[in-house]
Amino acid sequence: MACSSNLTLVKFSLMTEISTIAEYCIFQCLVEDTNLFLRFIFERLTRTTHKGELIFALRKMIQRLPELPKQSAHVIFNNLVGYIMFHVRTPNFNAPEAIASALSVLHLIMWD
Per its record, what are the GO molecular function terms (predicted)? Predict the structure, then answer.
């Protein structure tokens, strides 16, 4: 499966007709190779202007899965802490918003 298809799978998980199959595919990808599945999102968080869409996809993926695999939670946590540190070290105009959105996803992981 191509790395870029993870955003499509997250969007499919929001559709009631195919949400069960999409959630199953996401869960299996996270169990098999979390880093590969999430690489597309994490590589683009610091380089694209569509950060909100990527954070939204992460948030929805965490909310829609019945149980997030522990390895996936660990990978997401580490990458989001690195993302926050990136914005702390290289401040720009949108840094507070980016940090706040990453912290909201971290909150979901901690309570999952």
Answer: monoatomic cation channel activity
